[in-house]
Amino acid sequence: MKTLTMLLTGTVLSAGLAVVPAHSQGSTGDASPVEQVEGQPPAEGDQGIPAGEPVETAAANAPDQEPAFPGQTRAPQPSEMPDVAVETFAEGLPQLWAMEFLPDDRMLVTAKEGDFHVISAEGEAGPALSGMIEVASAGQGGLLDVALAPDFETTNRIFFSFAEPRDGGNGTSVARATLNLDDNGGGSLEDVEVIFQQMPTYDGDKHFGSRLVFSPEGHLYVTVGERSDTPIRDEAQSLVSGLGKVFRIDPETGEAIADNPFVEHAKIQPEIWSWGHRNLQSAALDADGRLWTIEHGPRGGDELNMPEAGLNYGWPAITYGIAYSGEEVGPGRTSQEGMEQPVYYWDPVIGPSGMALYDGDEFPSWEDAFLVGGLVTTGLVVVHLDENGEQVAFEERVPLDARIRDVRVGPDGAVYAVTEDPDADTSAILRLTREQ
Hints:
Elements: E1 2-8, H1 10-13, E2 84-94, E3 96-101, E4 107-111, E5 115-119, E6 143-148, H2 152-155, E7 157-166, E8 169-181, E9 187-197, E10 212-214, E11 220-223, E12 245-249, E13 272-275, E14 279-285, E15 291-296, E16 302-305, E17 344-346, E18 352-357, E19 370-374, E20 379-385, E21 392-399, E22 403-409, E23 415-421, E24 426-434
Antiparallel strand pairs: 1-2, 2-24, 3-4, 4-5, 6-7, 7-8, 8-9, 10-11, 11-12, 12-13, 14-15, 15-16, 16-17, 18-19, 19-20, 20-21, 22-23, 23-24
């Protein structure tokens, strides 16, 4: 491992390296010709933000929009923040999208172009695993998330999401496979089977989502995007479409869970759990086993939700932030009867990607906080919930000077963050520990 010439103290963490530019075009590479890559680099901000003040100091893209309740945006920093040391754990990797720790402390990673690799406990990458099926990797497509089956230690089964090439276009799909690894850092996927397809198929290259999270009961949550373009994105508001949804499925059959909210409605897709979402690239369970997600907003309006069964989260009928053109999104509303408010939102955006609940010993002050990869803020965003676990109490930033695509807590309690350089099609994995 190579130690970076970087030591991030609690003082430095609040010092503006993580401030987002007021001119940010949004976090997700929408269909606008202005911005085809997810997120934009941050601008320098004010220095020396004191504890107790919001870490975000840049002007909002939609300054006339008001939060629906106190604390819905720009939460204060906590009074104490850890000193963070950063080292490079692995480098020279293909452009990655997700990572998952295996029981033997190795990592299974997904490369956007369509390959799985295993990273050893020493940070060395093995060859691409054989047996992988074809993916549509153009634009924001590719091999996306990966999750180990709850019974992985006895079955070796994994689940993964990917942009699937189809007749007439593509779409987000979920497959499962058996993972067989050898002693040389390689291996294969066997019995690969697609168990779920987001429908309808669409000929585009944006907003595929997607994260996979197993519930405490063993059900599989699948998050997807609404495919970005107008008017197809409007199908996020349609219950006969699978665009802009969270699904809950049986990992054995790929079918809806029996008590899903719409299983009794013949014309509604029964796998739908919640709807009215934009581009969901962050998802994790909290300490109580509840699903939380963060979706990319337009130019402003990234939002944190705890999706509940059958509820409508508004996109694109309501949203915070504005369109890439600078105009209002649709009717320009931030609220509407029958649509849910986000628990929290960011304007300017953070560019949310991978998300993990911290449950290790390395960073006691982060216990039960969400760690979120920032594509725009180029670092980690640490979200602390209040004592009831219902609202955001504090937010802090850990600048890493790199787009962060995924975040995981290692068996050692350290935090591992996947960086990406889409221009060079490369990634590295950083390891974060508490400075003693």
